[in-house]
What we know:
Blueprint: H1 2-23, H2 37-46, H3 52-66, H4 80-93, H5 98-111
Helix pairs in contact: 2-5, 3-5, 4-5
Amino acid sequence: xxxxxxxxxxxxxxxxxxxxVTGCFPAAGGIPEPVSPSDLTRAQADYPAVTDVELAQGxxxxxxxxxxxxxxxxxxxHSKAEWTPIMERMGRKADMSRAETALALQFxxxxxxxxx
Length: 116
């Protein structure tokens, strides 16, 4: 009975691991390029006081906290107005502070292209 229980637990652990890995596998799309002067200009349209250093910090947070499940190309899927509540929700899910969430949002906004 103990061996059967051990086998069942091993199979369950393998199943949970597979689900966790495939459900949140590093997304295709690569790492976002470093912050550019045009990124800073776009971000400052919405956040006048933001600096290139803060955008770089936001980029790193995006890579470390968001990039394991989401890819950079997904940024264009939403507008700034849509990103704000998304980041409030996802920042909590990723255990990010409000300040970290704000930095990541500023980085995301810096990468948004105008919609046509």
